[in-house]
Specification:
Blueprint lengths: L3 E2 L2 E2 H15 L9 H11 L2 H12 L2 H8 L3 H11 L1
Antiparallel strand pairs: 1-2
Helix pairs in contact: 1-2, 1-3, 2-3
């Protein structure tokens, strides 16, 4: 069974949310793993609030660094040192 909200399967909302984000932020586009984050929001919020939370989360500097692959070497080096 596909989870639904009303008569609309959440998969359609998920696709819509991700497509809207690609239009909002084309320099990042879709990156693997975004669907999981968007899906978690959709399970708990409506489409509009999910999109707002998703976009605000991905506009944080550390997400932008990973999704744009800017200065990622510094983060990986720090991770290696801490691990």
């Amino acid at each position: 069974r596909v989870p639904c909200r009303g008569n609309v399967p959440l998969l359609e909302y998920l696709q819509l949310l991700l497509c809207i984000y690609v239009y909002l932020c084309p320099e990042v586009g879709y990156v693997q793993g975004q669907a999981f984050l968007a899906g978690m929001f959709l399970l708990n919020l409506d489409l509009f609030d999910s999109f707002i939370c998703f976009a605000n989360l991905l506009h944080r500097s550390y997400f932008q660094t990973f999704y744009r692959f800017n200065n990622i070497d510094k983060y990986l080096e720090l991770f290696s040192q801490l691990l």
